[in-house]
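Researcher: Please translate sequence to structure tokens.
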Amino acid sequence: MKISTKGRYALRMLLDLAEHQEQGFISLKEIAERQHISKKYLEQIVPMLNKSNLLRTNRGNRGGYMLAKLADNITVGEVLRATEGNLAPVSCLEYSENTCKLANNCATLYVWDGLYQVICNYLDNITLQDILCHNNEYIGSDYCI
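Model: Translation complete:
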């Protein structure tokens, strides 16, 4: 599995919003400048994040974007599923029912299923707040609870 630029930039965008949440709605231009990401590229990511209820949008003079939930309620797994789709390492695990005709006799299915479980467990247990706290500890900034 390889995470695309779309997934990586979406995570950076949401982290930027989490880091600056006290400023209210933030324009894509500000995020693009701080994150060194094309505004046009962010515009392509926004609909995916809106559809997944990760963003709140406000139009008009004070318009922009903010997180739809608290940073400690948004996981990396949610963000990547919103932009990348299913995180399954093989196609036969993409749906809740495995319809592969070889599934019952597949010698390697348990390997791929185990990998999938590890990926989901890991990514679903890291929140935006965890990343901000880790970054602050690494840089030596604010204390996080």
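Researcher: Any highlights?
Model: Helices lie at 5-19, 28-35, 39-51, 76-84, 109-123, 128-139.
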